[in-house]
Amino acid sequence: MTATLSCTGLSKRYGDILAVQDVGFFIEKGEAYGLLGPNGAGKTTAISMLVGLLQPDAGSVQVCGHDLAADPIAAKAKIGYVPQEIALYPDLTARENLRFFGRLYGLPRRELAKRIDEVLDFVGLSDRADGKIDTYSGGMKRRINIGAALLHRPQVLILDEPTVGVDPQSRKAILDGVEQLVADGMSLLYTSHYMEEVERVCKRVGIIDHGRVIAEGTRKELVSTLGSADRVELVLDGDLDVATEKLRAVQGVTEAVRAGTSSIRLIVNEGSHLLPTLIAAVQGIAVVTAVEVIEPDLEAAFLHLTGNKLRD
Ligand SMILES: Nc1ncnc2c1ncn2[C@@H]1O[C@H](COP(=O)(O)OP(=O)(O)OP(=O)(O)O)[C@@H](O)[C@H]1O
Ligand SMILES: [Mg+2]
């Protein structure tokens, strides 16, 4: 099976700065791939080469079997690109903006009118369609920008930090919409420095730092590079000293300590799987009234791999 989007050996230098170095990855049909990296990591530079806006110093890009350099028109027709900076005409209405972009894609007038209605409905802005863009919030503008990228029914949607500076309502609309597109078979490249968004939306993640993809995998695979176990906190009623001893004896529990008058903290492997066993182990001694499993996350993996925090 051909990947919807793939790149190999992508590199770009700006003077002394190697903004992107030997970047390669692939995205299957219907797959959501995340590029997670801090400010200045090279995300926008990499994307600009993937969508044909920036000439790479080295490397190649394939979109649905079309080589971007050899056959740019066919390749670009399969891509929907939502840039980091909003690109809309403030004096035009949302509908007029969409009409403008739709014509750039060469959509016939009839079909375009229908697609505009569909896209406005999809981004949840049908009722505001005839308002000027400069009366829109940042989040609403972003949603129209995403709509513009969908007009020509691309195979892969490329989003560059789509929720930066966006109100919570629009953020939710964007994330829900993106998940729906992927569920319907769209391939997705999602870049962000928000770990929780990438964790939610993407099945596979590439961690990018100083222009290089330094690790790649599912959330689980990346987090397993930490080699650390889950933390579990139990709140209990009963004899906590005896309960602590019992819990410590459970296979998979590497540590159990009392925390305050009503809690026990544990370090366990595969915490959520072990919960029933933990609860059973204290039966007759204490009653578990609350449970919290604190799993290691991508932020922890990123920290481990780069020695840096994701956010400044
Ligand atoms: N046009 C340019 N000229 C010179 N240097 C550039 C240019 N564009 C980007 N850079 C540099 O290349 C590196 C990568 O920048 P890029 O914008 O790709 O990062 P990013 O991961 O998108 O960051 P952000 O999260 O801030 O958007 C940075 O060091 C940046 O300063
Ligand atoms: Mg950027």
From TrEMBL:
Gene Ontology molecular-function annotations: ATP binding
Q: Which Pfam families match?
A: ABC_tran (PF00005)
The record's listing under SUPFAM superfamilies reads: P-loop containing nucleoside triphosphate hydrolases
Which InterPro entries does this UniProt record tie to the protein?
AAA+_ATPase (IPR003593), ABC_transporter-like_ATP-bd (IPR003439), ABC_transporter-like_CS (IPR017871), P-loop_NTPase (IPR027417)
Q: Does the keyword Methyltransferase apply?
A: no
Kindly state which keywords UniProt assigns to this record, in alphabetical order.
ATP-binding, Nucleotide-binding
- In this protein, which residues make up the domain named ABC transporter? 5-235
Which Gene3D superfamilies does the record cross-reference, listed alphabetically?
A: P-loop containing nucleotide triphosphate hydrolases (3.40.50.300)
Top-level lineage group: Bacteria
Q: Which SMART domains match?
A: AAA
Q: What is this protein called?
A: ABC transporter ATP-binding protein
- The organism is Streptosporangium vulgare
